[in-house]
Design goal:
292 residues; alpha+beta; Jelly Rolls; 5-stranded antiparallel beta sheet; 6 helices; elongated; S-S_Temptin
Length: 292
C-alpha cells in the first residue's frame, strides 16, 4: 500500500486548491447587470466558484462593483465591452435596477466566437490553462467521473457526511471537522477492503469550498485548522469545486477495515462572507470500496 504517495498527492492538491481557488458567492451576482443570467460570470467553472477568469479579476479590481470603467472594458478581448455583453451597453445600470436589456447576452469572460483561432489561442490568467482552447476542452469534456472500477462486481459504498442541519457559523471562514468510526458507518468488521474511488455528496454548494478526508488514530463537529486533528494527519483525499471525484490506481488502493484505516476525519471549509444566519450544510463524501 503506497500511503506516502497518496499523502503527497493530497497535500499538493489541497495546496493548489487553497492557493488558486477563490470562492464565489451568489450575492455578488446582484452587483452585475444580469449577473444571475450568465453562468459562472466571473469564473472558469460554470458553478460560479473557483478560480476567476479575466472578467472576475477585473471585477475584483473594481472593488466588486459595477463601475463605468469596468463596463467599458473588454475583459475577454473579443471586441465587445463588458457592458454590451451583460445588457448595459450605455453603462447606466445601477445595483438593484432592472437592466435595460436581458436578451442576447454573452459571457464577458469568454472570447467569442469561442471556437475561432484567435479566441482559442487567447491566454488565460492564473496558470490553470494556457489558453481558452485548453480551458474549454477540459471543462466541456466531463460527463461525470470516468472510473471503470465502479462497475466491477463486489464494489460497495458508504457515505460519510455531516449531520443533517449542521449550522454554518455567521463568520466568513470556518474549517469544521468531524471524526467517524468507519465500522459505525456500515463497513463490515471482519475483513479488509480497498478504496477504489471517492465521489462528493454535496448539500449547500453556496458555502462549500472544499472537503478533505484524513485517516485518524469520535464525535461531534468541531472547528479545526489546516489539519483535522493531531491524530488525523494522514491525508487521503481532497475534493474541490468542479471535481467529480477521484478514481484511485488499482495498485495503490487505500486499505480500510480490520487491518487498515478504521477512523477517519472529514473537514469542510465553509465560506459565509455576508455572515448570513440560518445556513446549514450536511455535505460529505461517498467512499467506494471492494474486498478485492
Amino acid at each position: 500500500m503506497r500511503v506516502c504517495s497518496h499523502r503527497l498527492y493530497a497535500v499538493l492538491l489541497l495546496a493548489i486548491s487553497l492557493l488558486q481557488l477563490v470562492a464565489s458567492f451568489k450575492s455578488f451576482q446582484i452587483r452585475i447587470p444580469n449577473g444571475d443570467s450568465v453562468p459562472g460570470v466571473g469564473h472558469f467553472l460554470v458553478e460560479g466558484t473557483g478560480a476567476r477568469n479575466q472578467f472576475g479579476l477585473d471585477f475584483a479590481g473594481a472593488g466588486l462593483k459595477w463601475t463605468e470603467a469596468l463596463c467599458r472594458s473588454d475583459s475577454d478581448g473579443d471586441g465587445r465591452t463588458n457592458g454590451a455583453e451583460l445588457g448595459d451597453p450605455d453603462c447606466v445600470w445601477k445595483e438593484h435596477e432592472i437592466p435595460r436589456f436581458n436578451t442576447s447576452l454573452s459571457h464577458p469572460g469568454i472570447c467569442d466566437p469561442w471556437d475561432s483561432p484567435a479566441c482559442q489561442q487567447r491566454q488565460q490568467p492564473g496558470g490553470l490553462w494556457a489558453s481558452q482552447g485548453q480551458w474549454l476542452a477540459e471543462v466541456c469534456r466531463t460527463g461525470g467521473l470516468d472510473c471503470p472500477a465502479l462497475e466491477e462486481d463486489g464494489v460497495k459504498n458508504l457515505t460519510v457526511r455531516f449531520p443533517s442541519g449542521s449550522p454554518v457559523p455567521t463568520k466568513e471562514t470556518t474549517y469544521i471537522c468531524m471524526i467517524f468510526d468507519i465500522f459505525e458507518l456500515g463497513l463490515p468488521r471482519d475483513q479488509d477492503f480497498h478504496l477504489v474511488a471517492v465521489t462528493p455528496a454535496l448539500d449547500n454548494k453556496d458555502v462549500l469550498h472544499h472537503i478533505s478526508l484524513s485517516a485518524c488514530t469520535g464525535g461531534k463537529p468541531y472547528e479545526c485548522g489546516a489539519l483535522a486533528a493531531s491524530a488525523c494527519q494522514e491525508f487521503l483525499y481532497v475534493w474541490t469545486v468542479g471535481r467529480d471525484g477521484e478514481c484511485f490506481n488499482q495498485q495503490a488502493g487505500m486499505r480500510i477495515g480490520r487491518n487498515g484505516y478504521r477512523t477517519i476525519s472529514l473537514e469542510l471549509h465553509w465560506n459565509n462572507p455576508e455572515g448570513k444566519a440560518g445556513l446549514t450544510d450536511s455535505s460529505g463524501l461517498v467512499l467506494h470500496y471492494t474486498p478485492n
